[in-house]
Amino acid sequence: MNKLNTLFAITLGTLASAAGAADLTLYTDGDFTGRPLNVVIDLPQLGSMNFDKRASSLVIEKDAWIVCTGEAFTGSCQTLEPGRYPSLRALGLDDAITSVRRRDAVSPGVFN
């Protein structure tokens, strides 16, 4: 990911955090505690957000998401539907997620 894309991702993450508009929120600890990372766009490298292999719980508010143990949506991937996941241990994903993306593409819309 180049610097401009990283800056864009950080900016969107910050805006989503401020607005409470995250479609996916990852937490460093179980039961939705610890540091959160609000996600609104596909992230092929959570390391660029200093969140590589740190998630222990997550909440999906909107759409299905694919979470993967490798960068760029590689490794072991699982599709998770909207809901609350207080522990990722049973899924074999505790401190293992490296990239996340929506299952279905989302159009950014038309800007006038």
Which features would summarize this protein structure in a list?
1 helix; 112 residues; Gamma-B Crystallin, domain 1; 33% strand; single chain; four-stranded antiparallel beta sheet; three-stranded antiparallel beta sheet; alpha+beta; 7 strands
CATH homologous superfamily? Answer: Crystallins
Oligomeric state of shown chains: single chain
Helix-residue proportion: 10-25%
**CATH architectural label:** Sandwich
What is the tally of helical segments? 1
The number of distinct structural domains comes to 1
Beta-strand fraction estimate: 25-35%
How many strands appear in the DSSP assignment?
7
Question: Average pLDDT across residues?
Answer: 86
Shape verdict: globular
Major sheet description: 4 strands, antiparallel
Separation of termini?
28 Å
CATH topology name, in short, is Gamma-B Crystallin, domain 1
- Category by helix and strand content: alpha+beta
What is the helix/strand order?
A: HEEEEEEE
Low-pLDDT runs of 5+ residues are 10-19
Radius of gyration: 13 Å
Sheet with the most strands: spatial strand order? 2-1-3-6
CATH class: Mainly Beta
